[in-house]
C-alpha cells in the first residue's frame, strides 16, 4: 500500500482555477500551442481518482502514475433534513448549534450520495475519459444498515462519533478484553444497538460502512468492505478473517465481505460510465478510512515515521512493525500491507482554540510567542468533558486555568499543553510495544503554524515537519493507483 511515487509529473505548467461550484482544477497553460501539446501527453496516459468523505465535506484528487495532481475539488455536504412531510434542504452555513442537536434528523445517506455525484461532475470532462480507477475513503465507524437487495438504508446512518453505550455490555461479554470494539462508538456497538431494537428487517439487512456504500453506488456489488473500515466491527486483519467469537453471533450474517484496501472490486457500472464519461475499463477499488488515507498521502513509508493530524482534534498514527491494541487507552492498529498503523485520537486540538480565538487573533498572538522558551502553564484543553487518548476517561474535565492576563502567554500555554499530550501519546505507543517514533509529519490546519511546530519539536525531541501532501483524497487516489497496478 506504500507507493513509491516520484514528484515529477506529466504537466510542467499548471495553474489553479476556482469555480463557482467550489472546486478547483489544475489546468494547462493559457498558451494554446503549449496547452494542446500537454493535453496530448495527458491523454496518452492514465489518471487515478480518489475521493475523501470527511466529517463536514468531501474532496476529490485526480493524479497520474507519478503522483502529480491534475485536478482537485471540494464540496460541502448539502444537508437534507428528514422531517415529517417533504424533506427540507438546508444550506450548511445556516446550521450551527442546532445541527449538533438534530443530527438524528439529517438524511446523511442522501447528502453523501448527492455529494458523490457532484464530485464526479466536478472532475473535468476531458479527463474523465482517461480515469483508470477510483477509490474512496470515509470516516471510520460511520455505519449504515441497508437492504441487501436494494442498498437502501433501513435505518439512519450511525455517525463516526456517535456512541451506543447501551450495547457496550453485550459487546464486552463476547469480545476479548480491551479489544478495539469495546468502545461505545465502535461499529460493532452500533450494529448491536440496531439489532437489539429492530426485529422485522433483520433478514434483509446488510452492514456497510460509509466508504463501502459510496463505492457500491459506483460498482454495484453490494456487501464489500475493506479491512481498515472493518476493523471496528471486529474483523481481524492479522488473520484476514472475522474471528470465531464474532461469527458465532446471530448478526454475523449481515457482515460484509472484506478485501485489502486498494484491490479491484469491479468495473464502474454502465449507467455511471455513460452519465459521466468514464472509460469501459475503469475499475472501482476497495477503500479505507479518512485518517489512513491522510497517512498514505503524507508518504510516511518507513517504521518509526508518524503523522500527527492537528485539526479539530489531535490524532496520531505511527508506522510500526508490531501490532498494538488496548481499548483502555483508545489505542488500536490498522494493517498496512506487512506493517501496522498504530495510533489514537485525543479530543484536544483546534476546536478548543476556535472556542477562544479567531483566526486573526491566532495569527497575531502566535507571532509574539518565543517557541524555544517552555511555558509554565499546565492545561488539558478540551472543548467539553471527556477524553479518548492517551487517557480514556469519559468524565475528564477541561482544564484551562489559571488564565494569565497576557493572551500571548495563554495561547503559548495551550500550544505547549497540546504538545505534551501529543508527546504522551507517542510515549504510550512505545510503552505498549510499538516501534519508537523517530520523525513526525504534520497534517491539518495546525500544520501551518510555524511557532506551534517549533514548540512541538522541542517538546517531542524529534524532527517535525509539514507533510508534503495533507489531503486524504490524495491518499485515496494512491489507493486507486495501487488497484490499477
TrEMBL record:
Residues 323-481 form the Carbohydrate kinase FGGY C-terminal domain. Residues 47-296 form the Carbohydrate kinase FGGY N-terminal domain. Its cofactor is a divalent metal cation. Gene3D superfamilies: 3.30.420.40. It is an enzyme of class 2 (transferase). GO terms for biological process: xylulose metabolic process. Keywords: ATP-binding, Kinase, Nucleotide-binding, Transferase. PANTHER family: D-RIBULOSE KINASE, SUGAR KINASE. This is D-ribulose kinase. It comes from Ficus carica (Common fig).
